[in-house]
Amino acid sequence: MLKRPIPSTQEMLPVIGLGTWQTFDVPAPTDRLRRTLETMHQTGGTLIDSSPMYGRSEARIGDLTTATAFADSFFYATKVWTTGREQGIRQMEESRQRMQRETIDLMQIHNLTDWQTHLRTLREWKEAKKIRYLGITHYTDSSHETLERILTTEAIDFVQFNYSILSRHAEKRLLSVAADRGVATLINRPLGEGNLFAQVRNQTLPAWASDYAIKSWGQFFLKYIVSHPAVTCVIPGTSDPDHLADNMQAGFGPLPDEATRHKMVDYLRAL
């Protein structure tokens, strides 16, 4: 799978990861979730993104990965989602316990909640090696200006935000600001929470999609995002191993150039 460097360290990260919002905190059979993680490992993905906001997701990730022989091959990302220093510390310690990790690879401030307080704590935790990277997140276009401002004034390893082929506000400034400041990017809502699939129901892929090893609409949507050079990793959510396998393929093969990216948008708009 294609990998891109985390700018602050040059550690390489596979471009397709796994989100767990509303996918791992469900009554999904444990066997299915286990096969999803096995498929991810087999196809070269590493980053798993979670949050204490996601109900049982952290605990299920911890239980399932620990039961494998390749638990240490994953890149574990979660978040702090509360207010106050002590509450934040307590919540992050609980996340370490639930995910069964001595060190969390990436701890992010969820939706910028009390971000100034938590950022000071995250820097202390990074120095103490309780976390390897620190980041900030949001999921709305209206947050992008605030994210940009933080990136230009604070030392941040990762920024996570929304971006898709039909929700391209991040292309205006945020992606370029992250690249200029040397901040890795994680992309949430890459499939428009499933709305993109509704738009292409019963529609066929363009013939030229095969030039980029695109074999499904999911890969079409994800490869558009991955083809932006400022994108580090995309985190579509799923608990289905077949969907996961399809998503992972967007990290393989040639990437669309800028002219083809425009053609992808135009094709979708014309449907």
UniProtKB/TrEMBL annotation:
What positions belong to coiled-coil segments? none
- Pfam families, per database record: Aldo_ket_red
Give the classification, highest ranks. Answer: Bacteria, Pseudomonadati, Bacteroidota, Cytophagia, Cytophagales
Q: Domain NADP-dependent oxidoreductase, which positions?
A: 16-258
> Which InterPro entries does this chain map to?
AKR2_Oxidoreductase, NAD(P)_OxRdtase_dom_sf, NADP_OxRdtase_dom
Signal sequence bounds: none
Name the chain's protein.
Answer: Aldo/keto reductase
